[in-house]
Specification:
seven-stranded parallel sheet; globular; Rossmann fold; alpha/beta; 254 residues
Length: 254
Amino acid sequence: MKLLEGKTVLVTGASTGIGRAAAIGAAQHGADVVINYHSRDEDAQSCIAAIEAAGGRGLAVKGDVADAATATDFVARAVDAFGGVDVMISNAGICPFHAFLDMPTETVERTFRVNLHGAYYMVQAAARQMVAQGRGGAIVAVSSISALVGGEFQTHYTPTKAGVHSLMQSTAIALGKHGIRCNSVLPGTILTEINKEDLADDGKRRYMEARTPLGRLGQPEDMVGPIVFLASDMAAYVTGAALLVDGGMYVNLQ
């Protein structure tokens, strides 16, 4: 069953990691997919090739989500290419690990601009287009287990992910009357470019695996099913929800 047949899906931060997996997964479920990416040209084109190999049409649009103009351009390019916007997957994010007491101001500000401000601008631009179209839509934001728990070297990151989760709750209320559903997914430790260096430490990686009841860390592909579900009509009565996708890590307090 192709859950996104005939829909146009937009994905931010899709040249690698969760965004890339979600974009390809959307194409496998019948969607045309427009991806945003910041700088990795070859990876973006590889993602488009995979989208097309899955049977979808694809378009890559380069831009920095921290700039509000990127969001309006991204949505406009999607409309020009494929006629509208049905789903926005707001995924772009960074996490430059750093201690709290000497955290550089520019690191804090950049993380907030990309993770939270970028999500806000992208969700707003997509919602405006969906309202204008008059046929509803779905927005899925990639938050994090870090919205619920702290991290010693993530004091700049965890507030942004809590903010993304809160943004989905508030936009679910603001946009429900337009038939637009807004939900978030909260990944646990997923092996991506964000944590590649941090988890290069074998001891830390084994510790994180041991904390996970399913016994392994996540792969980007583990996020595809939950994201596609929330984006699809199977979740027609689901809005304002947050879905943990963490292998059970959050509940493992023992």
